[in-house]
Amino acid sequence: MTEQKTPNRRDFVKGAATGAIGGTLLGMGAYSYSPLAYSRMSKVARQQADFGACRSVKVTSISETSWFNNAHLVGDIHAAGGLLVDQYSINWAPFGNGKGVAQGSYKDGIDSIKKMIPGDLEEAWATQQKLALHPDNAGGYSCLIEVEDLDGTKHKYLLDAGWSYDWMDQSFKREAIDQMLASGEIEALILSHEHFDHFWGFPVVMKYNNKIPTYAHDGFYEEGMQYIKDSGYEGDLKVIDKELTPIRPGMMAIKFNVPIITRVYGEVSLAFNIKDKGLVLISGCNHQGILQMTSTAYQKLKYDNDRFYGVYGGLHISPFEDWDPKYDDLVISLGKWDFERVGCNHCTGHLTAKKFIEAGYPVVKGTARFRTSSPDYLGNGDTITF
Amino acid sequence: MQVDNQAVSYLESRKLVKRWSGPWPAVVNTLLIFGFFYATWWIFQDPRGIMRMYTPYVGYMVCRWLLILFIWLAYIFDFWPFKRTWLNSAHPLLKGVVLTAVSVAAMLLLIKGFFIEILGNFGIAYFNPDRLMAMGLTDFYSIEYAAEAVMMFAAIASWLSPSWVVACENAPWQKLTQPTRGITIVIVTFFLSMIVYLLTMHSHMAILFYPWQQYTAITPPYWEGFANTVSGNFHIAWIMCCTVVVWVYESIWQRYPFNLIQTDWLRRTSSFFGIILVALCMCFFLYYAQDLVWGEAIRGTRREMAPDWRWLHVGETAIFWLVGVLYLSFYGGNWPTKFSRPVNVLLRTLISLAIGAAVYIIYYKTAHLFLGTQKGFSHPQQFPMIPTIWLINIFLINMWFMDGWPGWKAVPKTAEELQETRNEVVASDVRWTPSLGKGLLAGAAAGAAVYFAVITVLPWIGETVTIVK
Ligand SMILES: [Fe+2]
Ligand SMILES: [Fe+2]
């Protein structure tokens, strides 16, 4: 009896062990990527937070040219060890120390200029010009946002502080931002993320108003937070730690948690609900991806006509004029969202802008002044009103 | 000369025995390997280290091609031109240094000599960074693009080359002596890799340039609709799964179940295509699993929401499993071995999955703290395949070139043990009986139930478990 049973049981176990792997694999292969598998996925219900509305939004591109020579910028990154290298160590101004590529540090840099910021930026930048790599390649990204309330009153915000002290000071003066800051007309500074070209010009804002309410992503690294202090900031720093932070009726900050090149973490972008028109999205670099942003807005926000109306800013697609097939995925898919006006610049990439135009998207062209290199971009000194 | 032409390959001819009893060999080797891993990572790859090849594509290309060269040297050339007497008598450290150095030299020759100089100058421009630079691309991206193309070739070869040994049993050239056999199989698999490359990656490379190179490549690529992306990452997904399954099949599965097929040609073809089928099952599951955890991918987005990244991550996840598989097989003595083969295989599969999952979680929780990589799953420069393959390369140096030194040493197998090795290639330990059939059915039902349980739990895991803050 047992002699019979034991081999039977052993065979059964052998079969069962084999079958278990086979059955699992069969499920994995036959079901996983099938339409049936997707039909059972629950569609997430839209949450559509009501954040009010505004009448219009006008954006002035103070500077979208973050750097002037792509080969120098990419060359420095390359020499420093690639796109993951900590931005504070590359040896770019204002954190240069004269020791050459990848040998810089926040501490060395700030020690060389601490006494001069924000009071004497010319001196600080001149000091750094001797210590840093390609200091004249630095530009910056910054724009002025004017929100018109439904009752007609206007409110000004500054998105980002740019990079080069010299270039940003010039650009601020060109657009009278210096006066608006000094008079307190600009109600807040929003730092989209910690990148050199959006944030390192912070002392230039401080020069004119070191108490301006400032918003920053909670993913800023220690050096970034220290830089805010070391630049003489004495205002109310609002660290954005929630996904949605209302700024005023019709204006919402959306926080994205994404790791970004040169060791930066997270970006904050802005959404506006324009009465009777729809949603407008404004970003610094849009490192989260423009369609990630539209999807989040679609899921989380309520806006007029349930329609995407416009977009402005760096869309971080091919900032170094590099390319990847996934960017084509974006170019192909953007049409689905049916924006009425696309104002792109900065890290969008000229090639991307060109492909947008070829795809027939409503790209609002610029005037290519003040060192902006192509009219496909909304360039320095250009404005767009949504 | 005839010492190099034995019927049994060097790796099959030796048995690795522990030098000390208990867990000490595994502990010591693990510590040494991690030390060596970290030191070499710092020297060659780390973006904060000395050579900083993790740009990432240059480092990616190097670690993949090293893997191929190791496979060629150990598996395909059976260590030719090194003599069996030398392999048997030289100190493991010396062997490790010499064999690694030979592989590195061959790799440099191949990358620089063949891909860049020959292919890149007389065939396809994008293999040569200098040509890209001359056409106006920045030097950084010129090198990255060329490295990406060269790297992709290695990814394909890392599946096909070992497949020819493991699945096809070197047929029809198994009787040739070395180096004829090695050269033949390298040429054949290289040729097949070239075809697969043209069918899977050439279009990806062609749309890197403006305008799409439509006269020389199919654009948009034919997989666009199915894969929901124009990116060649779709192919990386299944090809990496194939690479992993080859080694799963060879190591922890001990070539089960296809080794039960007694007819040579049928066994070889079923293994070859069986590996692909298993890989496809894995590939589709891993993609679907991500959709369940993170929500359905949205085309045109970036990072973890984008289909192209999800496909890439399929391959990355598979490689994490391979780390578990090889660790169990090399340093865990392929435990367990005491049950029948099917039961051993099932248990090892589960154990290696657990190790792979643990490495995955630890990697994403901590890698940015010590590897110089970025935090998060999907940073565009986050390529976990680089450190994992780097680690696997070190496993291979240790086990193939150094006989597991210092924890293990090689002794020749006895005639009986050699017979056992042969029994693994063509086995008869599992035979058809009605009980086996019942077991199969019951097991398959249980397996399917497990699958559906897993996909039911995954969305919940996505909502409650956070690996990367
Ligand atoms: Fe930027
Ligand atoms: Fe940025």
From TrEMBL, chain A:
Transmembrane segments annotated in the record for this chain: 12-33
Keywords assigned: Hydrolase, Membrane, Transmembrane, Transmembrane helix
Ranges for domain Metallo-beta-lactamase: 68-315
Matching InterPro entries: Metallo-B-lactamas, Metallo-beta-lactamase_dom, RibonucZ/Hydroxyglut_hydro, TAT_signal, TAT_signal_bac_arc
Domain of life: Bacteria
Gene3D superfamilies listed in its UniProt record: Ribonuclease Z/Hydroxyacylglutathione hydrolase-like
Molecular function GO labels: hydrolase activity; transferase activity
Coiled-coil features, chain-numbered ranges: none
SMART domains in alphabetical order: Lactamase_B
Protein name: MBL fold metallo-hydrolase
Native species: Rhodobium orientis
From TrEMBL, chain B:
Signal peptide extent: none
TM region(s), chain numbering: 24-44, 56-77, 97-127, 183-210, 230-249, 270-289, 309-333, 345-363, 383-401, 440-461
Domain of life: Bacteria
Keywords annotated in UniProt: Membrane, Transmembrane, Transmembrane helix
The protein, known as: Uncharacterized protein
Native organism: Rhodobium orientis
Taxonomic lineage: Bacteria, Pseudomonadati, Pseudomonadota, Alphaproteobacteria, Hyphomicrobiales
